Amino acid sequence: MAKDKPTPRPRAETPKGFRDYFGAEVTARKAMLDKIAEVYHRYGFDPLETSAVETVEALGKFLPDVDRPNEGVFGWQDEDADWLALRYDLTAPLARVAAQYRNELPSPYRRYAMGPVWRNEKPGPGRFRQFYQCDADTVGSASVAADAEICAMLSDALEIVGIPRGDYVVRVNNRKVLNGVMEVAGVLDPTDPDRFSHERGVVLRAIDKIDRLGEDGVMSLLTSGRKDESGDFTAGAGLTSHQAATVMTFVSAPRAIARAIAEIEVTGPSHPMFEASLSPHFRNATTIGYLRSIVGLSQIGRDGLDELETIATLLNAQGYGPDRIVIDPGVVRGLGYYTGPVYEAELTFEILDEKGRKRSFGSVAGGGRYDDLVKRFTGQAVPATGVSIGVDRLLAALAAKGRLAADTAGPVVVTVMDRDRMADYMGMVGELRSAGIRAEVYLGNPKQFGNQLKYADKRQSPIAVIQGGNEAEKGVVILKDLILGAKIAQSATLEEWKDQPAQVEVPRGDLVAAVRKMLGQ
Amino acid sequence: MAKDKPTPRPRAETPKGFRDYFGAEVTARKAMLDKIAEVYHRYGFDPLETSAVETVEALGKFLPDVDRPNEGVFGWQDEDADWLALRYDLTAPLARVAAQYRNELPSPYRRYAMGPVWRNEKPGPGRFRQFYQCDADTVGSASVAADAEICAMLSDALEIVGIPRGDYVVRVNNRKVLNGVMEVAGVLDPTDPDRFSHERGVVLRAIDKIDRLGEDGVMSLLTSGRKDESGDFTAGAGLTSHQAATVMTFVSAPRAIARAIAEIEVTGPSHPMFEASLSPHFRNATTIGYLRSIVGLSQIGRDGLDELETIATLLNAQGYGPDRIVIDPGVVRGLGYYTGPVYEAELTFEILDEKGRKRSFGSVAGGGRYDDLVKRFTGQAVPATGVSIGVDRLLAALAAKGRLAADTAGPVVVTVMDRDRMADYMGMVGELRSAGIRAEVYLGNPKQFGNQLKYADKRQSPIAVIQGGNEAEKGVVILKDLILGAKIAQSATLEEWKDQPAQVEVPRGDLVAAVRKMLGQ
To answer: In chain B, what are the domains?
Structure first.
């Protein structure tokens, strides 16, 4: 047969925007997700693992993040000319499952899901095209008790993975309150929901920019429009100054409430509200009272506040006070997507950003109520609420707090001094493994002994076991404490080095016991 | 704005050949893989999770199974016109990683990987386009100690997940022995490896069919060819009868060895080999002696037998005798793909097939040595050996043995008798969860109490907690033992039912203790 002509060698590279995870990266994530699953399980949620591949038809074109409506999926045509694609989140597959198995699944259906999702987006630093999500949703419950439960579960999940109480807060808002603001401001007509939808879109995008543009910038966008530093003009919503003032009262609510509470604290017992402020309900009651003053004239606004009040009451009944879960109108992310309560978990401790400035860590999870989940498939509205934890963000937070489950301990390495006695070395490894000790024999070319120690070093091995011909004759093995050895090499003077040999000789029969002792077990 | 015209509803279906995994299916697989990972970890293997997406260039077109060389992948073109595809196994990505990170990774590199792979194959019953693999490989070791280690690890992995010793055997063969047979039979010329490659292909495919065609059928394929029952003719390898006899001696080796050993056992102490047969080495020594009689004239054949002998010795040194791992020339699967030792784990207990006939469960894992892993990328040969466990097959085996970790216990369900007292019910659930008890409050419409009990039933809930207005006044709750209740409903007479009420009334303050007691905790 003719030989194939040589083809150029393939490049050994992940595709652009994809990456691999090695060793401790895999185990740290797994340990974290296992703990979260434990909480979800205790709350009665069942795991669901959908296929990674869906029909494009079933996925729909709805990405949850309003900021990126045009982002794509990875798709292809199958042999029947149907378009298939990789899932871009875990919610769209849940919608498909809830419709497909609606007669078999319990209702309400509590499920959790953990796994990779794929987005055909422009990759960037720290932004990959495949990443993990970790979701929990309750499908088929219209009760805000379902929302309250998710908030409590989110709080428990953060604590179990290692975020201490006080270092996080779950903030809860309600889309209906915003709708109430829109109604009072004159850009929502309950009798004609489609009217003013353009204006509401502009308002929604404007208030989402409060952190970046400040109150003046948002005010411009609500009214006549805004010219940015580059000279680009963004059209405004065209609200009158009176209408815009109503919206701004809502936008500035978090700061106003914080100021009021701070004033009571500073004034102390002489403040008329001081006594009341000692109640754990005070902060949420103050917030709801403030918001009632804005949207009291709107039915939907009042409904939203009643829901928030119920959520606060239900959470208090379980001991989740405002130190963990708090009503906060400042949650605006996702308000365009959700239909009722929305919630967000924020880590409040400070880290240094890339320029060395202190900043609060920020959001690690978010969710809310979305009642059109299954309707696309069946025509029947099914209420649902759920949360998605940003797995990589939470891992980064744990790393920043030094709370990462870092099982980086390498194996005990049995070195090979004499190639012909491999059976002896494998016998040693076998004994260590049987005793539950992570261990391996050096399987590379044993000729250069230095390479074996370099290897043990690279594996972060705690101990090297050595038995040359002399030791074999004497019936002993040498244990080299590589951790102590590294410490001595780093810090000790030559004198100390002499007095503290990082290796011991022990009888062959004491191998397991001596290794255990050196490992501090 | 103009309204969108109504579009037809999407079908709520997984794409053809894909499926979802619910509840216990997810947890049982996870529990099994966690245990296997524990063994891999103890052996010094590190986890690796590569991206699901690779460039088609990096994947190559090499599917490991020689029977299906033309099976495809799911692929698409990215924005730079590069072809990307979902990985079809975990070995091709390992090859890419070993080349990409060759300067950073320890050498040898022991890694394990667990996760889904995708194949664009025609789906069928029990045959899906996405399925799990669980692999462990050692890259960069030419030593057969690496092969021996994988076999020992495979044995440990099977036992830890619940396959008892005696119910499985790891069988080991060597591609080099087969090459020796080919050389002796005159279809392999070591000085011109390409010569006779066509004939060798025919021989390889023929001996792989021994189970289906029997010795006569294989003999025909080795010589002049074979006409099957439908009249179709398959061309033969064209060997002379003498050459074919050599191959047949090899093919029939497993049966010949089994016969010889059985004869000694039956004859008993009067058999001249009886004394020798009591040694744990006897079976492997007999096998190797038999094979030496066939391939002794071939250098490569002798090399292969020496390797098998070393593997047996190394395994014996760790206590893995032929009751767990045995040299067996009957392993032919994958011989065309691998370059040295090959191994296969077979479950030896019997199950009933779909027609109710008893048959041995069969293979659940296989692997071997393949030394061209990284060469495609770097031009440099890197020896490697590894195993892949068939996750679904092994799960099916555990199910057949009743050893599946079936955590199907549903949550305690707190029912809602009075919608206005939801805070009380959530307080109960909160207490139960804080005590580590899986529990939930009914979140559907509470109007029909019967629906709540039906829901608890569907959730496989062990206990329903009930507190109506009367109970609340009395400060008590009712616990309904749903497991006992179901038993009574199934089997008891009316008299027994009266005497054994499956529900108790307990003080509200004793809720947690009483639930614990009823759960038998």
So the answer is: 16-142+371-408 (3.30.930.10), 163-359 (no CATH), 412-518 (3.40.50.800)
